[in-house]
Specification:
The protein is an alpha/beta fold and about 350 residues long. Helices cover about 35% and strands about 20% of the residues. It has one domain: pyruvate-formate lyase- activating enzyme. The strands form four sheets. Strands 4-5-9-10-11-13-14-17 form an eight-stranded mixed beta sheet, with helices on one face. Helix 9 packs parallel to helix 11. The longest helix has 18 residues.
Length: about 350
């Protein structure tokens, strides 16, 4: 079973020490004997140890930058929410297909932001602008926030902040089972706790440094017992030898483990594997031995935002994936809502 993340190296921006969380984290890492360096800004983090690109990349993934979020303009986060709430950036996992490969390519270290009250104030303004409509915020657009929250508790504070709001909803997704500190949060049903799940083949081959499927699903059962609305993102749905059996076994395990209390308000989001040309280049540089299938000839080209198209499965393959997974969800979780397939 994978242990909770602990950085090997910590950088702290001086301004972060003006906030209570910044001071707490500095003290915590000093007490743990972790090396702490000062940096004027995360952009100045240059000296990640390592003799070559691969070593530096791996070491960056275990480096934490404690800083201040300067821009409080939130990105949109369709289709899962209206806005992305920025609590952290970067991820300690080694998911070879991840889109963060390109967005975070040159800065794969993890950043946590300590000015959380300012971030919550900005979220309140966004909520006020949309009244009387509800406003949903996604906390895991640029990170696996659960993976570091045992250190920062920023997510726990966010859960309680949205619990007390009138029209705010929070959602996030994780591949980690380290959820115990979140079970007693006063969420008031306003946070949807989602887990990313996949066929065992995909997790074993492409999701290194993340929790096993069984551990994620057992954590989901705990989360359901704590009264959170629950969801699952099946992503990326990846065609491989035995994929139909692999995904059916995943749903069977989910069905065997989830308590009945979780089933009345359960959501699924289904996302097929896709990649862009820039992502392919970065993936092959960071994971030169990857078995990930990245052959443009086998795929269908789909125009994307900002002029960067992506390669998705052919139309008949997409139909087969959709039909197959919908069938299992209807069989095992007839009350669940399928939010989208993309």
């Amino acid at each position: 079973m994978i242990k909770p993340f602990m950085p090997q190296l910590v950088y702290i921006e001086p301004q972060a020490l003006e906030y209570p969380l910044g001071k707490q984290l500095k003290e915590k890492f000093e007490n743990l004997g972790i090396e702490i360096r000062q940096t004027t800004s995360h952009n100045q983090v240059r000296n990640i140890p390592g003799e070559n690109h691969l070593q530096k990349y791996r070491n960056a993934k275990s480096t934490l930058v404690v800083g201040v979020r300067k821009t409080l303009k939130f990105d949109t986060s369709k289709p899962s929410a209206e806005y992305a709430i920025p609590l952290a950036t970067g991820c300690m996992g080694h998911c070879q297909y991840c889109y963060l490969q390109t967005t975070m390519g040159s800065k794969p270290y993890i950043r946590t932001y300590v000015n959380i009250e300012e971030i919550f104030d900005a979220a309140k303004k966004y909520m006020d602008e949309r009244l009387p409509e509800e406003t949903r915020f996604e906390a895991a657009c640029t990170s696996d926030i659960v993976g570091i929250d045992h250190l920062t508790h920023s997510l726990k504070k966010a859960i309680e902040f949205f619990g007390q709001s009138d029209k705010g909803k929070l959602r996030f997704v994780t591949k980690y089972h380290h959820v115990d500190h979140l079970l007693d949060a006063d969420h008031r049903g306003k946070t949807r706790f989602r887990f990313s799940i996949n066929a065992d083949y995909v997790i074993r081959n492409f999701e290194h440094g993340t929790s096993a499927l069984k551990d994620r699903i057992e954590a989901a059962a705990k989360v359901a017992d704590a009264g959170y609305p629950l969801g699952f993102i099946v992503a990326p749905i990846y065609l491989h030898d035995g994929w139909k059996e692999g995904y059916e076994q995943m749903f069977q395990l989910l069905n065997e483990t989830l308590p009945s209390t979780a089933r009345d308000d359960l959501t699924f989001e289904l996302i097929q594997h896709r990649f862009t040309k820039p992502a392919k280049r970065v993936i092959q540089k960071n994971y030169p031995m990857t078995k990930l299938e990245l052959d443009e000839e086998k795929r269908k080209y789909k125009w994307g935002k900002y002029g960067i198209g992506k390669y998705v499965y052919q139309k008949d393959e997409q139909e087969e994936i959709k039909e197959n997974l919908h069938k299992h969800i209807e069989q095992y979780f007839p009350e669940a809502k399928i939010e989208y397939f993309t």
